[in-house]
């Protein structure tokens, strides 16, 4: 499985750092939605689904967490611990997020609005979907 991690340009000066992300330039899709999760409890694992069409970029803008990606053949775990790195998660990938530090803020840039019909929340159904 090819994992794409983007390293965004930092515009740093003596005041600190600034990162800007533009659709069509820094990431491969138009951004239709932004959401983020924080205050994630110790030991919590979330996700447990794949998307039929949705593409996303995951950025841990504060703290750190791990992302498990599964394409039906292999699984890879990626550590997100940098506010200027983004993990690209294409469609048809099962994902689980875990090991959140207490201060973790996981920001997600998404290619579409929220649609429950785009989710595959059952792993066996995901495997069947890949075979179609
Ligand atoms: C994903 C991973 C990385 C909304 O109302 N709008 C939204 O845009 C989102 C993302 C969620 N919700 C509601 C639906 C649920 O009642 O918020 C609640 C929690 O969502 P969910 O259980 O799907 O959260 P995660 O952390 O399991 O998954 C989320 C995204 O849903 C998913 O697309 O790829 O983060």
Explain what the structure shows.
The structure is a single chain. With 132 residues, this protein is mainly beta. Helix content is 7%, strand content 39%. It has 1 helix and 10 strands, in the order E-E-E-E-E-E-E-E-E-E-H. It has one helix at residues 123-131, and strands at residues 4-7, 33-37, 46-51, 56-62, 65-70, 75-80, 85-89, 94-98, 105-110, 119-120. The strands form 2 sheets. The protein has a 5-stranded antiparallel sheet, with no helix packed on it. Strands 6-5-8-3-10 form a 5-stranded antiparallel sheet. A hairpin with a 4-residue loop joins strand 5 (65-70) and strand 6. The longest helix is centred in the C-terminal third of the chain and has 9 residues, at 123-131. It is globular, with a radius of gyration of 15 Å. The protein starts with a strand and ends with a helix. The model has no long low-confidence stretch (mean pLDDT 97). Residues 33, 35, 37, 46-47, 56, 95, 97, 108, 114 line the site of dTDP-4-keto-6-deoxyglucose.
